[in-house]
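Thread: adenosine-5'-diphosphate complex, take 2
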Amino acid sequence: MDARFFGAWMEECARVVHEQRDYLTRLDAAIGDADHGNNLDRGFTAIRQALAESSPAAPGELLTLAGTTLIRKVGGASGPLYGSALRQVGKALGAAERVTLAELSAALEVGLQAVRRLGSAELGDKTMVDALAPACATLSRAVTDGIKPLEALRLAADAAEQGAKDTVSMQARKGRASYLGPRSIGHQDPGATSTALIIGALRDVAARSS
Ligand code: ADP
Ligand code: MG
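Output below.
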């Protein structure tokens, strides 16, 4: 996978987040402040612009720029969290012009650690971690088991989606939704849902470019 691939991933994230922004905002209206769709739409639109202005030659450089842009443009909790994650993934990929799925899997793990460090959320706290952690674990296992890249990404995207669905029954213990206490139960977490869209975008771009 080269910089073009990762540019296409960010482009697909921008497209799908834009398409699903009302849905994400509705989820955030139920347990937050109804801005998640707009936050991410604004953030990924800015990423698209930043990448159009300077097209980085290395995947790591590209994702670092994307992360920096998100942090700059999105004020909510999700901006710094996704932004730091992308920056750490970018740093972990380094200056290589091509990366393997095993390298991406290891880098995504570093991104997950960044989210956990910054947000101090555990599994089961009803946050993006509940989608990102199972996606990373599933991808890592698939790579170790020698499963073909496309199938590995499909499994990872399924795990993220299942993780997002599993947040419905959880009580939020981090972020704005935690203010609701037990009343946060019964709603799907917006951040876990957008994580599923982002990992789904990775799967779709890989399917298209293979
Ligand atoms: P804000 O909550 O500031 O309005 P957003 O609405 O954009 O920001 O994002 C909300 C999402 O951010 C939540 O659904 C949750 O997944 C995620 N989130 C909030 N706080 C944390 C945290 N401490 N750790 C991990 N994820 C978090
Ligand atoms: Mg919000």
